[in-house]
Amino acid sequence: MRHGSLPGVRGRVRPLTLLSDPVLHTPCGEVTEFGPELADLVEDLFATMYAAGGVGLAANQIGVPLRVFVFDCPDDEDVRHLGHVVNPRPVVTDGVVVRGPEGCLSLPGLEAGTERYDHAVVEGFTVTGEPVTVHGTGFFARCLQHESDHLDGTVYADRLDGRRHRKLMRQVARASWHRPA
């Protein structure tokens, strides 16, 4: 991205993959080429995230099985965090475990109380291959953990158990977008 340009303005909005798509349940591959195709992917991720009204989006959510995610997410103090991470690796998840409402663009219109740590640190690279470390607290820490999970083939529904999981799966089954696997 050029300095000063808004992310996503050059991108195209792509269709979102939904819960039943196998790409969401398969670990993504490492990015090995840092070039124009990767820059275009990041732009498309931002454009798609903004069009869908999200705060984060992983590449497999648009059908691309690569370890990349973008975010435009506030923390609990309403500080905006905007960026992307290529080949992210969570290095810290600690602090207090908080159960909070969590949704996902791949499960549109649904949410469930999901437990996450209130502090997270992710290391990776920028679209140009520069190392980057992203620190998150509160809601932004939840976002970092959520998007990192996506790249490992995990959706937030997989973190639920018992009654919460059964309730969410009933809602999925009734959702207009649901297509049984």
Automatic annotation (TrEMBL):
Location of the active site: E147
Annotated cofactor note: Binds 1 Fe(2+) ion.
GO terms assigned for molecular function: metal ion binding; peptide deformylase activity
Catalytic activity: N-terminal N-formyl-L-methionyl-[peptide] + H2O = N-terminal L-methionyl-[peptide] + formate
EC number: 3.5.1.88
UniProt keyword terms in alphabetical order: Hydrolase, Iron, Metal-binding, Protein biosynthesis
Cofactors that this protein relies on: Fe(2+)
Coiled coil feature spans: none
Positions that bind Fe cation: C104, H146, H150
InterPro entries according to UniProt: Peptide_deformylase, Peptide_deformylase_sf
GO BP, one annotated term: translation
Protein function: Removes the formyl group from the N-terminal Met of newly synthesized proteins. Requires at least a dipeptide for an efficient rate of reaction. N-terminal L-methionine is a prerequisite for activity but the enzyme has broad specificity at other positions.
The family this protein is said to belong to: Belongs to the polypeptide deformylase family.
NCBIfam families: pept_deformyl, PRK00150.1-3
Protein name: Peptide deformylase
